[in-house]
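Margin note: ligand = guanosine-5'-monophosphate.
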Amino acid sequence: MTKGLVVILSGASSVGKGDIRDLLLQDKDLKLFYSISETTRPQRPNEVDGKDYYFVTHKEFAESVRNKELLEYTEFNGYYYGTPKQQVEFLQSKGKNVLIEVEAQGVGPIKLNMPDSLAFFVMPENLEQLEKQINELYKDDQASAQRRINKAKMDMELAPLFNNIVSNEDAKKAAAQIKEVILNELKKRK
Ligand code: 5GP
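Resulting structure:
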């Protein structure tokens, strides 16, 4: 059986990766399964444990790190986020294509472990627009908004390292662009 393709979706915080991710996951042609991350961030009201994230305690996260259960992990805005290794490897071994969504620093370690994975970086239309969006989303927590803006700027500096950069002027267009690259890659691997 051909091993599944690992697709990494990255980009600055609040750039709209989520919308693109959902469009890709809904696309039946791509047969993508979502890699659910572990995080110590508190669950938001609209989020489902075991679907959006595995919400874990600091102690549980440290245990996963100690047991080398994570493909990569990072600290972001005071919380930890990590990609469970076994889940990705299991799906891949069953021939399933896997979608991993991470901030930019997470991409390097995944690429090192899985050199034939395909990484996409989502760019905002422009930085001012992104700052406005982050300030709006996190208007109740200015410090968090500022940290996300700083992180977005740092992430964008890593963009040139990616082979596939897509602009998120329109989530549907960005998803279509990503889909084309994935389908081409899948064709090559057959
Ligand atoms: P949020 O708190 O908004 O859900 O996520 C914050 C950032 O963490 C986003 O940029 C998201 O892509 C990233 N993220 C989510 N899961 C992981 C993960 O497992 N590893 C890494 N490196 N970043 C992640």
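The mean pLDDT is 94.
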